[in-house]
Design a protein that fits this description.
Elements: E1 3-11, H1 14-25, E2 29-39, E3 44-54
Antiparallel strand pairs: 1-3, 2-3
Length: about 70
């Protein structure tokens, strides 16, 4: 089965946590530790979390990873 990867990014708000939680509820797994960085343009902290998932379908570069 192909393993797909995506990185979820968002401002450091509950929205980020909800996006990661939604991915986990759809079968994605955490990959590594979360990351945090300051966005000087917006003046906010940004979060990032990589996730992976094994899928039945063959991988194709045009697929919408968040919909898998």
């Amino acid at each position: 089965m192909p393993l797909i990867y995506r990185c979820i990014t968002e401002d450091d708000t509950s929205t980020f946590c909800h996006r990661v939680s939604e991915a986990l509820s759809k079968g994605w797994s955490l990959h590594g530790s979360p990351t945090m960085a300051h966005d000087p343009v917006k003046g906010v902290m940004r979060m990032g979390q990589a996730v992976t998932k094994e899928i039945e379908a063959e991988y194709h570069p045009d697929m919408k990873l968040g919909q898998q």
